[in-house]
Amino acid sequence: MNKTYKIMTFGCQMNENDSEKLSGMLKAMGYTPIEDERKAGVVIMNTCSVRENADVRVFGNLGAFKHYKEDNPGMVLAVCGCMMQQPAIVKQIKDQNPQVDIVFGTHNIHRFPELLANYLVSGKRTIEILDDDNGLVEDLPVDRRYPFKSYVSIMKGCNNFCSYCIVPYTRGREVSRPHTKILKEIENLAEDGCLEVMLLGQNVNSYGNDRTDQYHFPELLRDVNQIDGIKRIRFMTSHPKDLSDEVIDAIATSDKVCPSIHLAIQSGSSRILKLMNRRYNKEQIIELVQRIRNRIPDVAITTDIIVGFPGETEEDFQETIDVVQKCRFDSAFSFIYSKRSGTPAAAMESQISEAVKHERLNRLLDCLHDISKGQNAGYQDQDVTVLVEGKSKHNEKRLSGRTMSGKLVNFDGDMESIGSIVTVHIKQAKTFSLDGEAIES
Length: 441
Ligand code: SF4
Description:
alpha/beta; Rossmann fold; pyruvate-formate lyase- activating enzyme; 19 strands; five-stranded mixed beta barrel; binds iron/sulfur cluster; CATH 2.40.50.140
């Protein structure tokens, strides 16, 4: 029996974290990973449905497996992730993709070993999608990609229903993990040598709101900060409406919590923000960013921006540019709005033409890049601490890692330092990264 596997992951950190759990379960079942999906005994495609063209990509990939399975007939092909929470997609797989053997959703990844065993015994296609799991499953084995840093999921789901987003329909309502379980997981990671944790949730600022123990995100940050061995604590994503003074204060006063906040603003126009159902306005964003910068002077603030939301006028777009200039984001993920079937925004009138969306995106990028360059310039000739993550992507002889504030640093140093924290002198600050040299500390 071919006991190798390949997991193909699309989408966000939540999916990467789920894939690490699936990988952990497969390893616990005696499977080993393999690079070439065509030769694998088990292939799992972990899908994302945030963008419509992601669906097209997944179906394109699935099509190729019809041929791969002719050469590798024992292969088991499983598909999971957010796309599978949409009945129309599952129907399309059922009707048109007989090469898919197992289908499961976001609420039952813990059931994968049973679903696989069931398929292997019966040879019958297995489809199991749950609408909700009524909670969280703890203590799944996890196969971490890096020994020195790890994702830690603190909650799942989202209660916000932004009008363009499919996540609340595919991941369900917010469910926070008990803090005792999170802290135990991080203590175990620290004992394993992990230095950095990234606390994950669609909206980490509302952690604990669904529980009755009055334990929220600031308490969690402070308690994780006390764990010996952990040197850096990151978190994402922050919804501006829930980033309270208590959270800002916990970041400012906890030395291991990185001064790095990903604050997804999405637009700078109050009118568009209302249509997006984001529940804050332009003035509130500017005031919040100012408050954060006053309290955490060395903070790096990054954001997400959507251009070309239905009905966005040139004036609305200029409001976004104005907010970007006033807030001086360190960097931003900017996206062209793309329709997600099943969301309110997809049915809105005044969809914006592709040409206008692209033209606005280019103008936004020019503005963002100028600001990033200016923000990075502050690091010129400074010494920074860097968690060394590996070899530099562009030059195998150099190293790369991140500062506390999340800046990418490429530098000359000792290859043996991968996985540790070193001091680097910054010789050149660029738009997207910093360049430097490790120094003896
Ligand atoms: S906060 Fe809005 S954009 Fe983020 S996951 Fe929830 S609904 Fe989607």
